[in-house]
Amino acid sequence: MELRNLVTRMQQKFQKSLRSNDDNVEASEDLLTPATWRPGNQLLAYLHEHKARVNQLVRMPAHRNLFGSCSDDGTVRLWDASKLQGHAYVNKSKSMYNRSAGPVISLAACEGGHSLVAATQEGSIFVLRLDSGS
Protein backbone atom coordinates (compact mmCIF):
# COMPACT_ATOMS: atom_id res chain seq x y z
CA MET A 1 0.00 0.00 0.00
CA GLU A 2 2.87 2.36 0.82
CA LEU A 3 4.45 1.55 -2.53
CA ARG A 4 1.16 2.43 -4.23
CA ASN A 5 1.03 5.69 -2.24
CA LEU A 6 4.55 6.48 -3.39
CA VAL A 7 3.54 5.91 -7.02
CA THR A 8 0.44 8.09 -6.48
CA ARG A 9 2.60 10.91 -5.10
CA MET A 10 4.88 10.63 -8.13
CA GLN A 11 1.83 10.77 -10.42
CA GLN A 12 0.68 13.93 -8.66
CA LYS A 13 4.15 15.39 -9.08
CA PHE A 14 3.93 14.53 -12.79
CA GLN A 15 0.56 16.30 -13.05
CA LYS A 16 1.97 19.38 -11.33
CA SER A 17 4.95 19.50 -13.68
CA LEU A 18 2.60 19.27 -16.67
CA ARG A 19 0.59 22.19 -15.36
CA SER A 20 3.66 24.34 -14.77
CA ASN A 21 5.17 23.58 -18.20
CA ASP A 22 2.08 24.20 -20.30
CA ASP A 23 1.02 27.86 -20.51
CA ASN A 24 -2.09 26.97 -22.54
CA VAL A 25 -3.64 24.82 -19.85
CA GLU A 26 -6.39 26.60 -17.94
CA ALA A 27 -6.39 26.26 -14.16
CA SER A 28 -9.84 24.68 -14.17
CA GLU A 29 -8.82 21.91 -16.56
CA ASP A 30 -8.08 18.64 -14.74
CA LEU A 31 -5.08 16.78 -16.13
CA LEU A 32 -5.12 13.03 -15.73
CA THR A 33 -2.01 10.93 -15.62
CA PRO A 34 -2.14 8.24 -18.30
CA ALA A 35 -3.20 4.84 -16.97
CA THR A 36 0.01 3.38 -18.38
CA TRP A 37 2.23 5.80 -16.41
CA ARG A 38 5.22 4.17 -14.74
CA PRO A 39 8.02 5.89 -12.81
CA GLY A 40 10.43 5.27 -15.70
CA ASN A 41 13.73 7.05 -15.18
CA GLN A 42 12.66 8.92 -12.05
CA LEU A 43 14.29 8.14 -8.73
CA LEU A 44 11.60 7.08 -6.25
CA ALA A 45 13.89 5.80 -3.54
CA TYR A 46 17.59 5.11 -3.27
CA LEU A 47 18.23 1.47 -2.29
CA HIS A 48 21.89 2.04 -1.47
CA GLU A 49 22.47 -1.29 0.27
CA HIS A 50 22.53 -3.08 -3.08
CA LYS A 51 26.05 -2.99 -4.49
CA ALA A 52 25.00 -3.69 -8.10
CA ARG A 53 22.02 -3.23 -10.43
CA VAL A 54 18.59 -3.93 -8.93
CA ASN A 55 16.79 -6.35 -11.25
CA GLN A 56 13.28 -6.53 -9.83
CA LEU A 57 10.97 -5.19 -7.14
CA VAL A 58 8.06 -7.25 -5.83
CA ARG A 59 5.32 -6.18 -3.44
CA MET A 60 4.31 -8.56 -0.67
CA PRO A 61 0.49 -8.87 -0.52
CA ALA A 62 0.50 -10.53 2.92
CA HIS A 63 2.67 -7.79 4.43
CA ARG A 64 1.15 -4.39 3.62
CA ASN A 65 4.24 -2.18 3.69
CA LEU A 66 6.88 -4.64 2.53
CA PHE A 67 8.44 -5.22 -0.85
CA GLY A 68 11.40 -7.29 -1.96
CA SER A 69 14.26 -6.52 -4.31
CA CYS A 70 16.84 -8.66 -6.04
CA SER A 71 20.15 -7.59 -7.48
CA ASP A 72 23.20 -8.55 -9.49
CA ASP A 73 25.10 -8.39 -6.18
CA GLY A 74 23.51 -11.77 -5.34
CA THR A 75 21.24 -10.51 -2.58
CA VAL A 76 17.52 -10.44 -1.95
CA ARG A 77 16.46 -7.64 0.38
CA LEU A 78 13.21 -6.88 2.12
CA TRP A 79 12.20 -3.20 2.48
CA ASP A 80 9.55 -1.39 4.50
CA ALA A 81 7.98 1.15 2.10
CA SER A 82 6.60 3.21 4.98
CA LYS A 83 10.17 3.99 6.08
CA LEU A 84 11.63 4.96 2.70
CA GLN A 85 12.69 8.56 2.45
CA GLY A 86 12.77 9.17 -1.29
CA HIS A 87 16.15 10.45 -2.40
CA ALA A 88 17.69 10.01 1.05
CA TYR A 89 20.78 7.88 1.40
CA VAL A 90 19.65 6.51 4.77
CA ASN A 91 17.11 3.97 3.49
CA LYS A 92 17.86 0.64 5.13
CA SER A 93 16.50 -2.77 4.27
CA LYS A 94 14.53 -4.69 6.87
CA SER A 95 16.41 -7.91 6.11
CA MET A 96 18.87 -9.38 3.62
CA TYR A 97 19.48 -12.84 2.21
CA ASN A 98 22.68 -13.76 0.35
CA ARG A 99 23.00 -17.29 -0.97
CA SER A 100 26.29 -16.53 -2.78
CA ALA A 101 24.94 -18.20 -5.91
CA GLY A 102 25.57 -15.35 -8.34
CA PRO A 103 23.34 -12.53 -9.56
CA VAL A 104 19.65 -12.84 -8.59
CA ILE A 105 17.78 -11.97 -11.76
CA SER A 106 14.16 -12.68 -10.91
CA LEU A 107 11.92 -12.44 -7.87
CA ALA A 108 8.25 -13.25 -7.24
CA ALA A 109 5.89 -13.43 -4.28
CA CYS A 110 4.33 -16.81 -3.61
CA GLU A 111 2.25 -18.60 -0.96
CA GLY A 112 -0.12 -15.64 -0.76
CA GLY A 113 2.72 -13.19 -0.24
CA HIS A 114 4.25 -15.03 2.72
CA SER A 115 7.28 -16.17 0.72
CA LEU A 116 9.60 -15.00 -2.04
CA VAL A 117 10.94 -17.20 -4.80
CA ALA A 118 14.17 -16.06 -6.43
CA ALA A 119 16.14 -17.26 -9.44
CA THR A 120 19.84 -16.75 -10.10
CA GLN A 121 21.62 -16.27 -13.40
CA GLU A 122 23.25 -19.68 -12.94
CA GLY A 123 19.83 -21.38 -12.78
CA SER A 124 19.38 -21.86 -9.02
CA ILE A 125 15.90 -21.29 -7.61
CA PHE A 126 15.24 -20.81 -3.92
CA VAL A 127 12.29 -19.91 -1.71
CA LEU A 128 12.50 -17.53 1.24
CA ARG A 129 9.74 -17.78 3.85
CA LEU A 130 8.99 -14.45 5.56
CA ASP A 131 8.64 -14.81 9.30
CA SER A 132 6.45 -12.03 10.71
CA GLY A 133 8.23 -12.28 14.06
CA SER A 134 11.67 -11.49 12.68
From TrEMBL:
The biological process GO terms on file are:
late endosome to vacuole transport; macroautophagy; protein targeting to vacuole
What are this entry's molecular-function GO terms? nucleotide binding; protein serine/threonine kinase activity
Keywords assigned by UniProt? Answer: Kinase, Nucleotide-binding, Transferase, WD repeat
How is this protein annotated for GO cellular component? late endosome; nucleus-vacuole junction; phosphatidylinositol 3-kinase complex, class III, type I; phosphatidylinositol 3-kinase complex, class III, type II
Query: Known SMART domains for this protein?
Result: WD40
Q: Which Pfam families match?
A: WD40 (PF00400)
Q: Which InterPro entries match?
A: Vps15-like (IPR045162), WD40/YVTN_repeat-like_dom_sf (IPR015943), WD40_repeat_dom_sf (IPR036322), WD40_rpt (IPR001680)
The WD repeats extend over: 47-80
PANTHER family (UniProt xref): PHOSPHOINOSITIDE 3-KINASE REGULATORY SUBUNIT 4
Q: What's the name of the protein?
A: Phosphoinositide 3-kinase regulatory subunit
Instruction: Please name the taxonomic classification of the source.
Output: Eukaryota, Metazoa, Ecdysozoa, Arthropoda, Hexapoda
